[in-house]
Amino acid sequence: MTASSLRAITLIGATLTMGLAAGTFALFAHTIMPGLHNTDNRTFVSAFQHLDRAIINPWFMATAFLGPLALTAAAAFTNRGTPAMPWIIAALVLYLVAVVITMAVNVPLNDVIKAAGDPRHIDVALVRQKFHESRWAAWNLLAHTGICLSQRWLRVGSFTTGVPESLERSPRGGVGSGRRCS
User: Fold this and answer.
1) What value does the mean pLDDT take over residues 123-145?
2) What per-residue string of b and e applies to 129-167 under the rule 16 or more CB within 10 Å gives b?
3) What is the pTM of this model?
């Protein structure tokens, strides 16, 4: 595998996994939380507890949470000295900010609901109040915006790298041969 192919593969992987993260945060910002907002307290607490438990799984953690971090760092490493590197570094820094927001604000609020216990046996109105729904939603939206910008910057970075040299040449002279359409 050539260095240019490795640069392209890591950048494509970072862009795709960043898109998965953006989509996950978007679903919470624009669908899940607005839908839960209109439910009664018991439904809200129960549904959020189930969602929070379900999202912590190896597939989510590997692809839509840690994947963007690892692959963007790998893309930054493999694209050292290229025109794409500043865009990749900017994306990585902004994604790290989104992760810090999530870990510092959203996860502790998630833990409030998770630790509350069975919604059939607790004061669900008090639990929902302690959750600070509007605070959670606002910070999630901010993290989502940062992740969307990170994904955008990765795409800009990918346009600055061009097609990897190994993919430009084809022994048949067809698609991927490096020939330009007139």
Assistant:
1) 96
2) eebebeebbebbbbbbbbbbbbbbbbeebbeebeebeee
3) 0.83
